[in-house]
Amino acid sequence: MKRAIISDIHANLEALQAVLAHIGTLNVDEIICLGDIIGYGPNPIECLDLVMDNCALTILGNHDQAAIFDPEGFNPVAIKAIFLHRELLESDRSSKGDRRWDFLGELPRRHDEGKYLFVHGSPRDPTNEYVFPEHVYEKELLAHLISRFEQYCFQGHTHIPGVFLETGKFVTPKEADYFFRLGQEKCMINVGSVGQPRDEDPRSCFVVLDTEENTLEYHRVEYDNEATREKIYALHGLENMLGDRLISGR
Ligand SMILES: [Fe+2]
Fold first, then answer.
1. How far is the centre of ligand 1, averaged over its atoms, from the C-alpha of 150 (Å)?
2. Strands of 215-221's sheet in order across
3. Residue 9 CA to ligand 1 centre (angstroms)
4. Which residues are found with C-beta within 5 Å of the ion, ligand 1?
5. In order of start, what are the domains of the chain with their CATH numbers?
6. Facing residues of 207 across strands?
7. Can you tell me the mean pLDDT for 55-83?
8. 8-18 pLDDT, tens digit each
9. Mean pLDDT for the stretch of residues 86-101
10. Which of 206, 220, 155, 215 is nearest to 180 (CA)?
11. pTM across the whole model
12. Distance from Cα 72 to the centre of ligand 1, integer Å
């Protein structure tokens, strides 16, 4: 079975459309979304609708959670965007508008299939904990995180793609020619971000997991990030820097 795993769309419609179009050419059986559909970007409603229509499984992200409940632990730029998104979602009083709230309210924090665990943040705190590449130097923490799942844990949240190996290494997709063979070793796999990459590559990022071949392939997709930046500039509730960072990929 081939599964495309996407994350951190952040209301970036141009990026999500480009990624879905690319996935359409890859013969995948299903799409899994690891959360943060909204937050930061100009098109929360359109992105929610696309995820609801296209993804077999979606996990709750911290920005999705913040739109439903009260945003805690966010910087002022992120909070402003969350309130704008809440306003946009509330302004649609149709039954479709209700369905979006129901969808967000019912998202699971984790999905455990035994061999595969899917979260937004980390295997310990599925919604909020960041696991950054430098965490491989914290041996005890890494060992603890790895002990929290059976074999492979898929996550997003940092917007930095790569594979954390049990042996204490972080391998970037570029280093591995975007291709990994999953062995016996346990690992955490950060799938990167569709709508706001932060690894200095502005292209959208996602992975395809082939469960029969036991392989993992990272994909990078170009999209019209200038168009998204223009939309962000035009929206009062979004700071310009949210548009600028899409161009630099930081
Ligand atoms: Fe995110």
1. 25
2. 57-58, 30-33, 2-6, 204-210, 215-221, 179-181
3. 7
4. 8, 36
5. 2-248 (3.60.21.10)
6. 5, 218
7. 94
8. 999 999 999 99
9. 93
10. 215
11. 0.97
12. 14
